[in-house]
Amino acid sequence: MNATAEFRKQGWDPVQAAILAKIQPALTAELERTAQPEKKASPEVQALVDLVSLYETKFPEICYTKGGSRARKAMDYVLRGDVIGAGVDRYGNDVWLVAGQKCSKRGNWCDCKDVGAPTILNYGKLCFHRLAIALKTNWKGDKNPALLAYLQKITEDARGAYVDILIERDYDYHGEGNRARVAGYWCHGMSQHERLVPQDVIAATLPQFQWAFGEMGWGLADLPMKLPGTTDYYYRIAKGSDLLLSESIFWHRGRTWRMEDRERMRRLQLVELAAHLEEWINAPISIPLNNYEARRITELRQRMKEESMQAAEVWAALPEALQAAFLENGENDNAY
User: Fold this and answer.
1) Nearest 5°: CA angle at 169, between 167 and 173?
2) For the ranges 72-86, 137-151, 310-324, which has the lowest average pLDDT?
3) Contact call for residues 200 and 230 (beta carbons, < 8 A)
């Protein structure tokens, strides 16, 4: 059966069927050309998804009636790097910090309020947090040997107490295991940072950075420092540093010195506007303000008014002799 007959069979009249049959090959070719390739998860993320499926099969109690499971949410914690070892308790059991909750895998406990979490004999309470620990400790995707080898090399060769790692934040990966890319480093004695060629850049997730720093005995020494541009940051690391490498700290949005300078000048301008608001309102040139700036000026104006009233009360409470002495000193200062 030819294409025209097929379209006529679908209910089109002969003229419409002939037109559709003529343009169908071109439409098909265009659809194939513009088809979006299926987005595949990275190998380490897929390994974690497979591990989640195993837990759902082993513990059907963690699955929800309408789909999904506690293990799926626990997987999000792991990918975000929100599962951090916190030593041991007084009984020698492991202690973890998971999304702000303390819990233990070996100790079978968690201080969360998930009263609906099932309790399994020999496994304890299977809440989001303890499932996240189980996934973290049985997952191999948090290991990145290439990242570890590079960091070990630059720290062994570096002079000084710290090293600044040049990291490009790869925003394309956000939502499926946030990634950053190690693109070079700087240390004492270098006039500028050494940037890797594109093919040598090392993509890594936050859990992989946590693993590498743990293996080295190094840690983040300060908040990430923003560099000019949209993606580049310096991450200062030092041996023995114990700054918590959490998601909020690792993905901290820093500012360049130029951004800080502009912000400081704008704050000074807002204070000046608040102090002389009536003059600025009656000025021939208007100053555009956004909602935040207008609200900030109102707050500053109110604070200045309150401070002025407090100063008047303090002045009124001073003895007359002390007031006269202050006024006399002020006149003498003005004379110079």
Assistant:
1) 140
2) 310-324
3) no
